[in-house]
Amino acid sequence: MKERLIILVIAISIFTVSYGIYSREKQSLTQEIKQLKAKYEKVSTLAQQYRALSEREKKKGTPLKGGLLSYIQNSSRAIGISDHIGSIKPLPGDSEVVDVIYQKLNLKQIIDIFVKVDSISNLRIRSFSINKRFDNPGYADLNMQIEKIK
Asked: Which fold has domain 68-148?
């Protein structure tokens, strides 16, 4: 009888210890699964963003073949803001860069300029600044440098 009781106590002890080890391992694996799931979701999000940017780049228009100065004048005329050009001048350097100052533009006109430049695959905006006008707060001046990439 004592032997059976000792065997029963040992069996229960072994079962309790193994169940504790199993519970700890299960909890550890569950935590690892959650961490991996979070990493995979992040990778999935980055992959979607990469695909979206790649598609955007593919949709981008044809490259500019002519001169940058004439393109800026023609595109400003097409948008209807050619009379808002305060100054336009090429900058010296290895690449073709033009500094343009637009005066008295509203927000829609500013956005139209950025969209027009973004639609050409070999143009990039090197820098820009927008300054609110004090004489009419609904308007702003836009100073930007546009570069033609080789």
From this structure: Alpha-Beta Plaits (3.30.70)
